[in-house]
Amino acid sequence: MTTLHPAAAGLDHAAEIALQSAAFADAAEGNLTARVEHCPGWTVADLVDHLTEVHWFWATIAEQQPTDPPAGERPERAPDDELIARFKAGALHLDEVLRRTDPTAPCWTWAPQQQDVGFILRHQVQEAAVHRWDAEHAAGRVVRLPTAASVDAVEEFLTFSVSTEDGYQKKDAVPLAGAFVLRATDADAAWTVSDDSVPGTLRFERGASPDVPVLASTASDLLLWLYARIMLPVPDGAQDLLGRFRALVFTD
Asked: Which residues contact 167 (CB under 8 A, 6 or more apart)?
């Protein structure tokens, strides 16, 4: 298992998935026709169906532990008046599966660096949390995601969702050609992002290197910025640098 950042010590990933899933369902209830700003063309109903399928997909993998992604037919979409109930049932099933399964059990994941149930457990926190934010945003509410979970999610994102030497790499990628710091203002956490040895790949280390631009906000805001949900004030002279970083990110 990955060693948690000290600012995320004690984080219970399964409990966090359950918490964010319940908050997601509450935000979606009675608001299914609202548009989801950062998922073009989607309503909240579409978002509920999507996260229901995500939970089914990863519960299936954690339970069956295949070496390849499930090739079976996906569940049919529930009628709108059954969407929330179907989602809640699926979230409960995912929670039960993850709690009873050894996180070190090998299985297929989309991340070459980590092929075990622990990856599912960790990544599904941010899947549920970011989509919870989407549903709250569609309802006109402003929420801050939990600090410890956001700290871990930022670090997980920098591990798996950017172009890296041992993971996925962007074709014809332009190198970062510099370094910058992400700093959480509500936790003792910072990360320095820089070029790795293969052109067009990135690495990070915990802590803030001196004399480089610093993007500072709450851990929740940093996670939402990474997922292009919100904008943050750009440090002086760092616009192009952060643009190159954005081009080296995978968020699909």
From this structure: 111, 112, 113, 159, 160
Digit-coded pLDDT (tens) for 216-247 = 999 999 999 999 999 999 999 999 999 999 99
Q: From start to end of the chain, where are the E strands?
A: 179-184, 189-195, 202-206, 214-217
| Residue 14: domain span | 8-143
Other Cβ atoms closer than 10 A to 26: 15
The model carries a pTM of 0.96
| Angle subtended at Cα 10 by Cα 182 and Cα 2, rounded to the nearest 5 degrees | 65
What CATH number is given to the structural domain containing 242? 3.30.1050
| 113, HSE (Cβ side, Cα atoms, 13 Å) | 17
Separation CA 185–CA 164 (nearest Å): 27
The string of pLDDT tens digits covering residues 9-47 is 999 999 999 999 999 999 999 999 999 999 999 999 999
